[in-house]
Design goal:
Strand content: 5-15%
Shape: globular
CATH class: Alpha Beta
Helix content: 25-40%
Structural class: alpha/beta
Strand order of the largest sheet: 3-4-5-8-9-10-11-12
Radius of gyration: 20 Å
Length: 359
């Protein structure tokens, strides 16, 4: 099953059920891709995965996590990303998507390997969120977004999507998880507003829905539109599976191609245990069971393809999004899947006894 192609609505088929998950590299130069991106992504596009999603990319300057985030909100960013996509497509022509995001109160941070990624003490910027609540003791109080701020955020998401399509991306993934801005509106842990963007579940989902609607209005017919959502906050009083299903159905009605189910991240420490194999599969299968016309993927310690094959056969998921395993070994799929995933230039290194095919 994992080697079987699958259709993404108007776009067409992807060749198997493994997608390279977006992974922040914090290596851009003034928001533009650097030499590191060319090295990093040229390895991933040859990995054997059916689709590649580029890292979380900021829709505006205050939407960055760090000063070295990839960005797409001006002509220079668009030009540099277009050049990168042309380079990658010449290596292998598989679908390439861009995850677009706003960091919200998680912004203005150090690089993860500098001071543990804590809030900047110099050259910091005022962050924005659903409410004026700190993400942790070491951060500063964010601005509570007013209605004009929200209109600007929706417009910036839409403009970044347009730029992504002009730059040659085959699709976009809206980041609604991992404690970033849209998640900050969705979660009652962070959102204590008393207007139409807070309080009830419908109100907390409003920003996510309005951003998606705005992007959909200008979505080319042959492009992919997905979203990364939170299946649970892993906290008492946070998003639970029922709220996640509610959002999934809302997005299904807006005719997205897929949802990737993630979890956690609304505050630094939750009850999530990422060391368990396929630790999100139970929440993912409940969401999958609740929708009919949208593909559902999962992420989180999904490196056993025999188990993944079983999950697909049982109808728990349609495909998987894998990140860190590709960082450990970009070629790990070569010995797990059919020979066609291996670049012809590498075939002489393999023989029949090497392969461990999934049946």
């Amino acid at each position: 099953m994992i080697e079987k192609k699958i259709k993404l609505k108007n776009f067409g088929h992807i060749s198997n059920r493994v997608v390279v998950s977006p992974m922040c590299q914090y290596s851009s130069i003034n928001g533009d891709p650097s030499e590191w991106h060319y090295k990093h992504l040229s390895s991933l596009i040859c990995s054997g995965a059916s689709m590649l999603i580029l890292e979380s990319t900021a829709i505006n300057k205050i939407g960055r996590i760090t000063q070295n985030d990839l960005c797409l909100f001006n002509d220079k960013h668009e030009k540099k990303l277009r050049k990168l996509i042309k380079f990658l497509k010449k290596i292998k022509n598989i679908p390439i998507c861009l995850q677009i995001s706003h960091s919200g109160r998680k912004g203005s941070s150090n690089l993860p390997w500098v001071n543990s990624g804590k809030y900047l003490k110099k050259n910091y910027w005022k962050t924005i969120s659903s409410s004026d609540l700190k993400k942790d003791l070491n951060s500063k109080i964010p601005k509570k977004a007013n209605l004009n701020d929200i209109k600007k955020i929706i417009l910036d998401f839409s403009n970044t999507a347009k730029r992504a399509f002009r730059a040659g991306f085959d699709g976009i993934e809206i980041h609604m998880a991992h404690g970033y801005l849209i998640h900050q509106f969705l979660s009652p842990i962070c959102n204590i507003r008393d207007d139409k963007y807070g309080g009830s579940l419908e109100n907390r989902c409003r920003l996510a829905v309005e951003i998606t609607e705005k992007i959909k209005k200008n979505l080319p017919k042959d492009k992919i539109l997905g979203a990364r959502i939170t299946g649970t906050d892993h906290l008492n009083g946070g998003i639970d599976i029922d709220e996640a299903i509610y959002l999934a159905k809302k997005l299904e009605n807006l005719k997205l191609d897929y949802l990737c189910v993630s979890s956690g991240g609304i505050i630094p420490k939750t009850n999530m245990n990422p060391n368990i194999n396929a630790f999100r599969i139970n929440i993912t299968k409940k969401i999958k069971k609740s929708v009919k016309s949208i593909l559902i993927g999962s992420t989180g310690n999904l490196t056993s393809l025999k188990s993944v094959n079983k999950y697909i056969k049982k109808g728990y998921i349609d495909f998987i999004f894998v990140g860190r395993q590709f960082l450990i070994n970009p070629n790990w799929l070569y010995q797990k899947m059919r020979i066609e995933v291996i670049p012809k230039q590498y075939l002489k290194a393999f023989n029949k006894n090497f392969f461990k095919r999934i049946k």
